[in-house]
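Hello forum,

I keep getting stuck at the same step: I have a sequence, I want structure tokens, and every attempt I make locally crashes halfway through. Rather than fight my setup again tonight, could one of you with a working pipeline run this one for me? It's a single chain of 749 residues.
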Amino acid sequence: MNVTRRIFRHLSLLINSLRPRRWLKQLWQSPHLFGDRYTLADNTSVTVYTDQPGIFTAYPRRRQIQGSPRTQRVQVSLIATTLNEGRNARRMFASILAQTRLPDEIIIVDAGSQDGTAEALREASAQSGIPVEILVEPGANISRGRNVAIAQAHYPVIAALDFGGRLKSDWLEKLVAPFEIEPETEVVAGWYEALGSFGERVNRMGWAALGNLDPQGYLPSSRSVAFTKDAWQKVGGYPEWLTLTGEDTYFALDLKHRTTHWAFVPDAIVQWEAPSTPGAYWKKLFNWSIGDGEAGQAMAYYRKAVLKSLIALGGVGITLGMAVSLAFFPSTILAAAAAGWVTLGASFLFIKAHRARYSVSDFVWEAPVALVTLLGFLRGWSRRGMVDRRRFQSVKGVFFMLSGVPVDDIGGGARCTQITLELLDRGWLVVFVNKFPKFERVDLNLQIRHPNLLTVSISRFSLEHFLRDYGSVLAGKPKMAMAEFPLKDFLPLMEALRKAGVCVVYDLLDNWDTALGASWYTPHIEQQIIETASALVATAPSLARHLEQQSGRPVSLLPNAVNTQLFDPARQQLRPADLPSAEWAAIYTGSLWGSWFDWDLLAQLAQAYPEAAIVVIGDYAGQCKAPPPNLHFLGLKPQRDLPAYLAHADVAIIPWKVNDITQATSPLKVYEYLAMHKPVVAPDIQPLRGLPGVYPATDAAEFVALVGRVRQIELPVGEMDAFVRQNNWQSRVDALLELLSTNDSPKNR
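Reply #2:
Ran it on my machine without issues. Output:
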């Protein structure tokens, strides 16, 4: 009876903690419960460092640890956080001191332990011979503790671990090896194993298995990871706005986006003590899932958990119902069906357990995993409003991006998206409001998501509701906006933003009074947009002159630019599988529609060089009639994939006609071509004149001849690099924020 009462009491507490009425209401109102909030592009190249010949044999980037020459010796700060780890403190410290490669210093932050953890650590470190600092930060969560420790670190490489485990004796030596073998390394992911009570290895559904990993996509736990202090600074540290868990996944996702050179060392192993009872196992999974629910990450896992939970609960309900029928109505057909169902269900469960090599005990441990993790996720999700308000307190400002296209349109390479990503990197909150849906024939499923990025269509956005929910948290922070399309739908929002003290800039991208804006553009509406805007910018000189004449006001020139973090010629790029083999290749990336695209020139180029592969990347719909066999259309690609194609091409081309549209454009692609050190052959249009590495052609014949010639000339790489340094999105956003700050309203301070 006492056991039954305890079960019901714990169940009641769990249900109350979840506040079902509250989160059910939120579930009903939210269409994005299981949508990822953080899926920015992976900009990394991961190299596997291992001396085990039998693992990841098919992975293309591999190096050995033993025998690889060291180019330097790095100094390492080992950091960790603790809370009531008195039982493990001495053992863990002894494990650190037994390393074949000792850290240069140890910094541990204690969150206010009540069991003598800090004292035990000080005693254990007294005879270590290594500088040790024990800091006490009462109430600090894990992220705060790690950030405090790293801020105090004296050395360029940080190795992080969790207390409560054991380190293989060569863990640190192997974890830091990639930094010493390849100095450009920024992050090294180690590995970890769960051990049972008798030191045996324990495998559970709730954590990763080495054999199932893709090294490129692996997100390390902070119980076994190392990174440069510069990388930590790039991402702004661990996310202190999360309540307790999920911080290492979020931190790893941020590092994936903002760093490039990664290593994975499966030989650098931390062993941790696995939960010894099913209840402890489920509790740990529940707590881990809370962090994912708060941050909105790993959503594919939780979508599957929903299906598994529904199947399990439905099967249990049906089985119980049929069992009751069998007991009370043994002569009915339903009873026979019940017996068949129970037999079938039992057989299914037995087969599944057998295939997974589960014992009966294992099956008991694993059966509720999907439901437990789902409940933990829902608990975290119910806190998102609180977590968002806590997070938004630390943002630098709010930027409203009013765009015609969605954030993930054009492969994620649009100007508005590049500005948005740079603002997110700087810690701004971006409210991205779009008018039109995507018109691409191919859905790349990019899902650009970030906790500081709110995306919504103009038809569903309410500035009043936004300020009601977050106005108090964002008070006193700079608030700015950019309208990129002169759309009637944007006028009321622009006027409301101005009244709220927001500085609004109108960004003239193209000559809209052409075929580009034929279906929606109205000069009268554009004039109202101009009058409403606080400041004006344009992407090309002719557009700036036009806007000055139309407005009678100064206009700032803000051309397109390049994401130098993504388009980096120094990064190793694997040859894409669908890139055709040929003696050499010319490439075009971008839109394939409009009266400015010269299909005849493209075909003529292919015919002139049958030994070459003329490669076109974009949303192709058969516009080229009877293309030559060496003219290859590879389809639309995400922007993150383009550097690999450019790296393995010889010449970049812009096969456009010269007309009113192209003379008033700032081709974003040309900045990406130059960043990847590719000679560019383009029509002789005013915006491209004088750019290093760009070779203008006055007619089709000269265009074709130049493509064959420039692939063999020596490029002005120094001038190209200097140009890219001045024309990246960092410098553009610097100029934009400075412009908006000078036009900012006092109401916004």
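Confidence is low (pLDDT under 50) at residues 20-31, 745-749. If your local run keeps crashing, start a new thread with the error log.
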